[in-house]
């Protein structure tokens, strides 16, 4: 149990376009989901915390208008990278919270050309 | 604020060697502590956890003990295998009982050779 999926696993887009990444908890309901960004050979940086039915809470330094997060249901959260640029290329990981643990998705590799 | 400090990597060991990856933390209150593992090209998987002082988390031959007096949660394994090659992250959560924000260390890459 406690499986989290992400889609797509890899995406390549052109500069200026928008990309949506989905995060789903497959076998449990998650009132809280988290979005992280991981740079090469570095740790995970929390971008935002999303609660079902309410606005996401963004970490300091994360642009709310660029990284749109929607948590429409107890099993789905989406991250949309708007007007993507090469510097947005990264590995994006979501996690879903259940009790005091987080369960991580496999990540999405975004490459902006 | 909360922080986690891990030993610098990479760590290179021969198969069957003993592994220790150091982790210390700074937190207010009584955090829960975790070790996550990330295999190449994959997301993070929870390896083990401890929720209170003196608890020992264990899984797949790995162990870590929550030491409040030294604010440490060192990861150990008696005999590593090539398949253990991965990046290991120490993390803490400052609110027990809820899935709250995790603070991660920078990760330690382990490479096990034959």
Polypeptide structure, described:
The complex is a heterodimer of chains A (113) and B (114). Chain A has 113 residues and is mainly β. Chain A is 0% helix and 56% strand. In chain A, strands 2, 4, 5, 6, 9, 10 and 11 form a 7-stranded mixed β-sheet that branches. Chain A is globular, with a radius of gyration of 13 Å. With 114 residues, chain B is an all-beta fold. Chain B is 0% helix and 50% strand. In chain B, strand 5 and strand 6 form a beta hairpin. Chains A and B meet through strand 5, strand 9 and strand 10 of A and strand 6 of B.
Keywords:
heterodimer, A: 113 residues, mainly beta, seven-stranded mixed β-sheet, four-stranded antiparallel β-sheet, 11 strands, 0% helix, B: 114 residues, six-stranded mixed β-sheet, 12 strands
Q: What radius of gyration of chain A results from the CA coordinates?
A: 13 Å
Strand percentage of chain A lies at over 45%
Shape of chain B: globular
Multimer state: heterodimer
What is the number of strand segments of chain B? 12
On the 0 to 100 scale, the average pLDDT of chain B is: 91
What's the β-strand tally of chain A? 11
In DSSP terms (H or I, runs of 4 or more residues), the helix count of chain B works out at: 0
Poorly predicted sequence stretches spanning 5 or more consecutive residues of chain B: none
Offer a quick outline of the entry.
By secondary structure, chain A is an all-beta fold. Chain A has no helices and 11 strands. In chain B, strands 2, 5, 6, 10, 11 and 12 form a 6-stranded mixed sheet that branches.
How do the strands and helices of this protein lay out in sequence?
The complex is a heterodimer of chains A (113) and B (114).
Chain A: E1 4-7, E2 10-13, E3 19-25, E4 32-38, E5 44-51, E6 57-58, E7 67-73, E8 76-81, E9 90-98, E10 101-104, E11 108-112
Parallel strand pairs in A: 2-11
Antiparallel strand pairs in A: 1-3, 3-8, 4-5, 4-9, 5-6, 7-8, 9-10, 9-11
Chain B: E1 3-6, E2 11-14, E3 19-21, E4 23-26, E5 32-38, E6 44-50, E7 56-59, E8 62-65, E9 75-77, E10 86-93, E11 102-104, E12 108-113
